[in-house]
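Quick question: what would this complex look like in 3D?
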Amino acid sequence: MLRHILARLILMIPVIFFVSIMVFTIMHLIPGDPAYVMLGEEASQERVNALRKELGLDRSLPVQYVSWLAKAVQGDLGRSIKSNVKVLEAILARLPVTGYLALSAILFSILVALPVGIIAGVKPKSTLDVLGTVFAMGGIAMPSFWLGILLIFFFSLHLGWLPISGYVSPREDLWESLRHMVLPAVTLGGSLAATNTRFIRSSMLEVMNKEYITTARAKGLREIGVVRVHALKNALIPVVTMLGLQLGLLFGGALVVETIFAIPGLGRLIVGAIFARDFPMVQGIVLFMAVFVLMANFLVDILYSFLDPRIRLSR
Amino acid sequence: MSLDMDAPLLSVENLKTYFHLREGRLKAVDGVSFQMSRGEILGMVGESGCGKSVCAHSLLRLIKTPPAQLSGKILFRGTNLLEVSKARMRRIRGRHISMIFQDPTVSLNPVLTVGRQISEALILHQGFSRSRAAARGRELLEMVGIPHPEKRYRQYAFQLSGGMRQRVMIAMALSCQPEILLADEPTTSLDVTIQAQILELIKEMNGRLGTAVLLITHDLGVVAGYTERVMVVYAGKIVETASTKTIFKHPWHPYTLGLMGAVPHMQANQEAHLVNIRGTPPSLIGLGEGCAFYARCDYADERCQKETPALSELETGHFVRCFNPEREEAAS
Amino acid sequence: MNDSPGIIKRYLEQGILAVVGLSVVFLVILIAIFGPMFSPFGPLDQELTHVLSAPDARHILGTDDLGRDIFARVVYGARNSLFIGIISVGIAMVVGVSIGLIAGYWRGFHDRVIASLMDAMLSFPPLVLAIAISAALGQGYLSVMIAIGFVFTPFFGRLVRGVVLSTREKEFILGARAVGTKDYKIILRHILPNIAAPIIIQVSLGLAYAILVEAGLSFLGVGLNPPTPSWGSMLRDGYGYMQMAPSMAISPGVAIFITVLGFNFLGDGIRDVVDPEHQKVFKQVEL
């Protein structure tokens, strides 16, 4: 298994390389002079020149890339043009908030998807299955921002049960924190739940049709035992990987959810940076997210290797 | 349950397994009757798709009954298995009647250890503790001829060869010393050399444990070497049944004749050619009246097309379902 | 035994999802093309006396904060969404299929490079990448289409690469090569038919996703230039007026929902028909 891990790590190198190139290119996609775009048309020539110097825009592209990369590897992602804080610091300050949101969303999606998906897979074409599938299809089609708006409309404005927006740190006030996190978590986790329900269902369905399930029944096991002992482990291993891979989607969804609910996380940070034309910040965040996702995928892959004995023991 | 030692262990009466599909009624098992005595090895031979596998699954009620419908009687030690409760049936599965399947690679759970799967039945049916079941499991592995049982016990199916996997399946099935073992084409997926080993193992277990075996196969060679009696199945019905010796000496049903003729013989002279049964097996959906073999039969007449023959005992212990059986001695 | 009518009937039943999806998609396309003819108002016409009005006989869906007819804006928005979706998915398809073919068929170095490239593209959260690109290129149709097209390319690429990899090992390909058939002929005659179905499915699902992404971009303010009607930006505007004029937010939301659902149904429906997975029903019988 160690060799497997090493092989994976080595494979990641070209990928990270490409990622860095792509991120680097973002700022250079800007038509016209990036410095002007960032500072605005009316900015003085001095300021523009100073910015160009600072960002190294006067040097040749390859040189810029290497210097940017070198600094990035050391953790220096530059400074925000607008607020002059270090990009990495800003990111790390906001990361826990987005993490809190993401975890809540995942938790919600599992709470829904697991029971519904398993039962639907074990008993296909039953009422629960049909209902579940309908909801799942609807959930996938529903844009998260619309869901969010609807939820706010209903639960906050109409019923007044939950706050419209805002964020409260769990360290300040746990109860209020949870209250404020319910709608955002459901909004973000909604489409996740839909996707996961379908995936768990089809995974279970596939497993239940396998021959070793018949063998288990031929031994006299109760259906519940068959599902619990034989089917679940086989069906859920791929689901675990799915969850890990959804991290990327979560970041995207977080952008929108944080905007709607005014949550001070990474999503709002990057949206704000985009509007402020703060491209070093944008670059930094995108790079951070991409590397984060890659790391997460890597860990998930290791987890999968560990869970599936066929991979764990064959190397 | 009665313990009359002379009464047959298993008595199947007019078993029918019909599937209700949109296209029609699929008669996989169409009125099958037979008996098994304690400790005997009974063969069931027929082409692919003739219903023999469904028959075995039906005996353990492993068929999903909304699309399927089972009727008839399956008397195991006097009790009709088609009428017992689901819970009772579960107690019989794995404990009194076990089954092994064709492809051991897919019949074993890939993420559980071999040992875990072997001891499962012991823990379930005989209340063994984990450790006691593990010990017994290792003994079983040794019994079926797997070297280094302690090591193998902890391994996974993919770490074993095909032959070993089938041995594991056998160990699993025999763990609670059932009265009957249903062996559904146990050697079809294996290499030829391994096939013989597995069959020998089954024969040995039959001798040692006294387990009756229903050996399902499409291979006449298997039948010849390892069964005492045999039933020939065609289109969901038994068309001939006799002791193995008798069937090979003088098969009477045209289909059986065809099967025999289709197998190359070492002793045959140069002129003898392989008999090809013309036509193809019929679809099991919408079978009407008349003998199912009619279209492919060289001995058929008008009556065969209109009436369905019944199984008749033309000689002691030798039953044939045919209006015009070949009653001469076949050329050997 | 006449099986043909049975098979056709079964395909129809299995494909009911695709049929429903196709109908919905067709409807949406019709509305996008012909809808504007039926709308008495233009999407940009402001009627400042009739701001935030509820649905009535004149304004079927009411008016927004600048007195514009919501129905008109939804209908014109359909045009924009579909247009952007088709172009961007088209770009993604052409580029993605090409690189997928190259990677899958010629393997080796090409494969490794392309596969790494695609993995890199896939490690970016789609919406984030789309926003960043879109923002860098400036607002407007072109940047949105390029952004979404870029983000989607690896979906096609990965799919095609996978199918090509498995197909090329099949015996008939080896046979064709053994006989000396030229590569491009093999691809054209043997490989493309095999990848056609998954591509069609991916296109349909991709359109669904593209519409969602475009709406997301517009919602965040990075998409089309206002006052161009886009479902996403309509939602953004409507967010603030939810209590006063719920139709402003609900209408575009429903439009997005139905359209995306339709494309999803279509894609899944085709997959149900084409993918042998649904033949599992027979497994029970095949014992």
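Answer marked as accepted. Residues 278-287 of chain C have pLDDT under 50 and may be disordered.
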